[in-house]
């Protein structure tokens, strides 16, 4: 039976993107190919905030401190915290999902598979999870990805087949692609992969969500958008404010909403920040 290294598994309201406001189960897998230490920092500087967190002091993921700079889910990929993320079988994951769903089964809730980067090696494990009999009523899945990981042919075929109409509903897969701009601290040549993202749109509904704070970030987003469009990307473009903690989010949200309107792009909030302070498990 397939296993997945699970950083977090919780029930909350989706705070971002297309399904904002929808009650959702979040499966956060462990591992990422980036570090994104530039978020919330002056251009060209990298945060060391997460590096100062001493893993020896914490026995539970949810006890870890939140950070205001760098990747706000650092513990889902930093190897120093790997022991806080258990390797779980698909049966164990489904059992936990049934415990956290309010009716003990899927109704209208949505499944978000996030990370870290959920399209790394775990692609091979999702089939077992989604084929579990207690997952048969699940209608919608979003993969929250950084858009740099190709889908395997086997996984593509599986997701297309998973979306075949059922008696009472048509299941749908969404790829929410948070492509990283230079403000993340990562190199554009590695983060902007239109070839890969265009392939996702052959398999499911796909949109781009750029995390921005300034006009300069938006200029980077527009430049990246042109690259995606030139490669044949047809989906929507969202701007979302930087800010994994409320003090940073509130500095940016109104300005980013204004910038989205100015450029005719969609605005995505981060509802988990004002609603739940973006604590672990929200
Ligand atoms: S891609 Fe996402 S999870 Fe990975 S380091 Fe960047 S912000 Fe964090």
In short:
The chain is an alpha/beta fold and 282 residues long. It has helices at 90-100, 123-131, 153-162, 188-191, 194-200, 215-230, 246-263, 272-276, and strands spanning 3-13, 23-29, 87-89, 110-114, 140-145, 172-177, 205-212, 237-241, 266-267.
List all distinct small molecules, including ions and cofactors, that are bound in this structure. iron/sulfur cluster
Q: Which stretches are poorly predicted, pLDDT < 50 over at least 5 residues?
A: none
Distance between the termini: 29 Å
Label the overall shape: globular
Radius of gyration, rounded?
18 Å
Description:
- There is one protein chain.
- The protein has eight helices and nine strands.
- The protein has 282 residues and is an alpha/beta fold.
- A nine-stranded mixed sheet has the order 3-1-2-4-5-6-7-8-9.
- β8 (237-241), α7 (246-263) and β9 form a beta-alpha-beta unit.
- The radius of gyration is 18 Å and the shape is globular.
- The relative contact order is 0.17.
- The mean pLDDT is 95.
- The structure holds iron/sulfur cluster.
- Iron/sulfur cluster binds at residues 32, 34-36, 71, 73, 77, 115-117, 146.
Descriptive key words:
19% strand; nine-stranded mixed β-sheet; 282 residues; 8 helices; alpha/beta; binds iron/sulfur cluster
